[in-house]
């Protein structure tokens, strides 16, 4: 086993920037000896000709699934243990949606969902939705429309957006929605029972008719498990 100091230098070395496999291997080795957290990201400054001068590249961190897995847990591609799987996503997502009224959006996202408010102007406002940026743009003539697709026997509204959260967060959010008197399109319940994709889910709409889904995997590591749903 290479020394810890060598592995750390290799993880951060600019020479690793030309070889993604080398960088991934270095990160894997560091993770294996608990030198780097699974969700860490390695930034490499490169002056090598293969990437141009003084550019910064972000290598997605990886973790090793070499330890025994709990029953029913799959890797991200549905495979077995001893494979590399992507670590948790740490980049905030940005979503802009139309709403009838900015003040109504503040009431829904700020008061009902508990999202801190960010920047705003007369006709738009930012919200922090669990670390992700949702921007509500006022469109007076906006008419939300959606279709539905059957998922595990439920007519799921399409399009929709939302979050994958922890089970306690899911139930806390369900209580907030109930307390606000908002009608569920699909009541909070457990779907895909006994399958790798088993999850809590609920659907409801904001005051402008935009559909949202909040879900919680009973096995969080199975969020991206690849398998055919029966």
TrEMBL record:
Q: Which InterPro entries match?
A: Glyas_Bleomycin-R_OHBP_Dase, Glyas_Fos-R_dOase_dom, VOC_core
Quote the PANTHER family the UniProt record gives: PTHR39434, VOC DOMAIN-CONTAINING PROTEIN
**Per its UniProt record, what PROSITE patterns does this chain match?**
VOC
Gene3D superfamilies per UniProt = 2,3-Dihydroxybiphenyl 1,2-Dioxygenase, domain 1
What CDD domains would the database entry show? VOC_like (cd08357)
Could you tell me which residue ranges the VOC domain spans? 91-217
| Superkingdom field | Eukaryota
> Which protein, by its recorded name, is this?
VOC domain-containing protein
């Amino acid at each position: 086993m290479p020394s810890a100091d060598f592995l750390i230098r290799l993880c951060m070395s600019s020479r690793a920037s030309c070889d993604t496999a080398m960088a991934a291997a270095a990160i894997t080795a560091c993770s294996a000896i608990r030198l780097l957290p699974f969700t860490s990201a390695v930034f490499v400054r490169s002056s090598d000709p293969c990437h141009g001068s003084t550019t910064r590249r972000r290598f997605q961190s990886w973790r090793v699934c070499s330890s025994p897995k709990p029953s029913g847990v799959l890797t991200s591609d549905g495979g077995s243990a001893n494979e590399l799987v992507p670590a948790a996503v740490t980049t905030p997502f940005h979503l802009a949606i139309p709403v009838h009224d900015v003040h109504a959006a503040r009431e829904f996202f700020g008061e009902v969902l508990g999202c801190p408010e960010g920047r705003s102007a007369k006709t738009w406002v930012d919200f922090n939705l669990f670390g992700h940026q949702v921007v509500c743009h006022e469109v007076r003539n906006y008419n939300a429309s959606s279709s539905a697709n059957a998922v595990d026997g439920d007519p799921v509204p399409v399009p929709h957006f939302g979050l994958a959260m922890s089970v306690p967060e899911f139930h806390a959010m369900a209580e907030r929605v109930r307390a606000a008197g908002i009608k569920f399109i699909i009541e909070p319940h457990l779907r895909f029972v006994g399958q790798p994709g088993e999850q809590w889910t609920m659907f409801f709409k904001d005051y402008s008719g935009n559909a949202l889904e909040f879900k919680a995997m009973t096995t969080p590591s199975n969020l991206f498990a690849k398998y055919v749903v029966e």
